[in-house]
Amino acid sequence: MKLDMFYSSITALMAAFVLLTSFPVQGQKGTRRTGTVERIMVHGKGLEGNLSGDSPDREVAVYLPPGYKENPKRRFPVVYLLHGFTDSASKLYGFEQHWMNLPKVLNKAFADGKRPEMIFVTPNAYSRFGGSMYSRSVTTGNWEEFIARELVAHIDKKYRTIPKAESRGLAGHSMGGYGALRIGQQYPEVFSSLYLLSPCCLEANSNVPQDSAASARLQAIRTQADLNRADFFTKAMFASAAAWSPNPTKPPFFLDLPLEKGQLQPSVLARWNANRPLATIDQNIYNIRKLRALAFDAGSQDKSIAASIRELNEILNNYGIRHRYEEYEGDHINRVAERIGTLLLNFYAENLSFEQERK
User: Cα–Cα distance between 310 and 96 in angstroms, integer?
Assistant: First the structure.
């Protein structure tokens, strides 16, 4: 299977499993305190042999706050921030034009030295389908284990982290918000605090096309070139199917779509719903109780997602689980950077442990 050109260009540069580039990121005008971004490659054993043909060697962007170089003996908490569908670590960290530049947001927040600092880590989950959904599938690979086990272990070994759950947060936007909840509720012994920014894909039986035009667009996808030219919604259907309804006997995409020849496929929908957090939350509630803190928000104009987190809020209230929930005036992306630089950082400053390990 021919790999995506993005990954081909990266792997061609690799001499081994790790490629490292590092540079300082400019802070606010007139300030000298700036963080540093490093780009490394991390090999995922759980991603090996995925039927999509995506590389198991993943680019990972790492933001080291200003205090990391100023205090060479100090250790820092880590926030693992997962990007959204069709995004990438390169886009989020400013290597490509994007709607947000995370290092600039963090540099502005840390410029005066008054805010508790933390490391940020973002793995590149872009795939031949536009995103992995941070799930576990023979078609896309085991992204749950890669992030919770392999990536965390690699970061703890390479950087001056505080290597305990109380000092690790997991967050994400859109697809990344879904991934943060999906993975975080499975690994409370790894991540203690979750922050979901406009998390997609929470509710059951959502976003499944039933009109003839949508069905025709799905059926028209025969090759990778067709998929590359497809609209956002069609790509999302394929990405979801690759993650939640894989089929190892069905090349070239190795998946089952929820709509075939204009007819909904109940068995496929059932498999999708088994991956929807609001459909499975009752079975995961004991793990959610173990979390130190949980927060989620969405713009009120992002109507379906706002409705889903409203339902999540009600369920957690019924179980008596403390959390922070907000619907704010905004859409899916227009205020996310602002909220990361203020509310998300405040949330982790309050809920992560900054206590230095004793030798």
Answer: 34
SS3 325: strand
Give the pLDDT score at 215: 82
CA distances from 120 to 45, 63, 89, 207, 325 (A): 23, 5, 11, 31, 23
pLDDT of residue 214: 80
The answer to whether 83 and 98 have CB atoms below 8 angstroms apart is no
What burial letters (b/e) apply to 180-204, b meaning 16+ CB within 10 Å?
A: bbbbbbbbbebbbbbbbbbbbbbbb
Q: Looking at residues 70-82, what average pLDDT do you find? A: 97
Is 205 in a helix, a strand, or coil?
A: coil
Q: Are residues 239 and 330 part of one domain?
A: no
Q: What confidence tier does 33 reach under pLDDT thresholds 50, 70, 90?
A: confident
Q: Identify the domain containing residue 19 by its residue range.
A: 5-205+285-351
Percent of the chain with pLDDT over 90: 82
**Residue 22 CB-half CA count within 13 A:** 9
Pairing assessment for the beta strands 57-64 and 36-43 based on DSSP bridges: antiparallel
C-alpha 72/C-alpha 131 separation (Å) is 36
Give percent of the chain with pLDDT exceeding 70. 89
The tens digit of pLDDT for each residue in 285-334 reads 999 999 999 999 999 999 999 999 999 999 999 999 999 999 999 999 99
Q: Please report how many Cα atoms fall inside a 13 Å half-sphere around the Cα of residue 45, on the Cβ side.
A: 6
Residues 254 and 109 both lie in one domain? no
The whole-angstrom separation of Cα 56 and Cα 145 is 13
Pairing of strands 168-173, 78-82: parallel
Total domains in the chain come to 2
Phi, psi dihedrals of residue 40, rounded to the nearest 5°: -125, 165
Work out the burial of residue 280: count CB atoms within 10 Å of its CB; fewer than 13 is exposed, 13-18 middle, 19 or more buried: middle
Between CA 14 and CA 29 the distance in angstroms is: 36
